[in-house]
Amino acid sequence: MAVLKTDAILWYNVGEFGEAGYAVPNWSDDVGSLNPHILNFVNVVGANLFSIMHHQDVDLRTPPSINTLKRIHKLYVRCASLLAGNAIPPGQDNMEVEHYRPAGEVFRVYPCPYFLVRNPFMRKWAELIFIMQTEAMQNTENRKEMEISTAFAGKVGQYIRRVYTNMAIELFGKEKTVAEAAGFVLTSADFDAYDPYAFFTDTELTDTVPRLDRVFTEDRLAYLREGIPVTQLPELGPWPNNLTSWYASQRTDQTITPSGLVTAAAGETPIESGSSNLGKVAIIPPPPGQI
Amino acid sequence: MAQRLEYCEWTIAPSIKIRTQAGGGGIQIEGVPKTLKNEAALELAAAIQEAADFSGGHGPALSPKNNVADLAAMVQTRPRETAPSVETTSDERENVAALGNLVQQTEQSA
What we know:
The complex is a heterodimer of chains A (291) and B (110).
Chain A: E1 10-11, H1 15-19, E2 22-24, E3 32-33, H2 36-53, H3 66-84, E4 87-88, E5 105-106, E6 108-109, E7 112-113, H4 120-137, E8 148-149, H5 150-172, H6 176-179, H7 188-192, H8 202-205, H9 222-225, E9 228-229, H10 243-250, E10 255-256, E11 262-263
Parallel strand pairs in A: 4-8
Antiparallel strand pairs in A: 1-2, 2-7, 3-5, 6-9, 10-11
Helix pairs in contact in A: 2-3, 2-4, 3-5, 4-5
Chain B: E1 2-6, E2 9-12, E3 16-20, E4 27-30, H1 38-58, H2 67-76, H3 90-109
Antiparallel strand pairs in B: 1-2, 2-3, 3-4
């Protein structure tokens, strides 16, 4: 189903997964693609993120384990291969078809924990990867039948690159200039020497026990693991605790009088004392003299 | 009754021991008495055959004295990875560098 009321990461509000804060990227009204590279890229990234975000590290506020970091590293290298390895520069002829026209394919998404994830690193990285998928799914090159351009690779690849540089800087202590160098990758020695306890605060290194009743079995997750075509999803929206919804519920033209009662603005019908608008304050204060 | 104590050692009561190693290395038999009852002789023959099959390379090349290390090596070669390797090939590093350049071009043109 097309998603037109928000551009944010979507809340997969289906049963217990909705209660657990699962999310999917936002395809808006671009439910599919003619571009095999983009379809494959979105699929590979979604499946990998699904695997990473179902690891026990998501429920811990302490720095992620080396296993998760290695998986992020592998995902980054994989994305570089998919993007840079397939992108065609502007000056190079694109492969074109003569007798073939694709029927197109609907995007598959892999709902995974996000909105209630306790680990700040993994939540931040998941956000960037969801955004990367969103940008890929809504990119104009979904119309192209055979190739992706270097412009697409650069635009979409910046998100996974930001994930990697953030990981290298915050968790491996690399300098920003080093981590942002074009060919920078962490080495086996870097991973062997991983020790966040050397520079994280005590607050970041201690945690309470998370709830233990939302550890889904692999059988329970099997349907999600297969990837769900976006056209089979119900109508989805943003996470309910968002600013857009809050301002929409609060914005009003009424003001509060010095006595605390709500009165109508000049020329409007007064509000009953039992009205639900009691106590609401105008987002933009009225000009002086109109209280 | 023949009892296989280790991966490549058999013991037939009371004292016959057969040792071998996969991949060829011969079979060592010790403790065979001068006379054997029929049942024991049959067990011995079966155990020798089994050892010969094993020695002929049907099993992995294991050292009988280092089974713990061998088991650890087998665990690491399981298809399902518990933590992936982070080694990157030169081609992968080139792709990473290329992606970095593309991203920088995008950021500069924005």
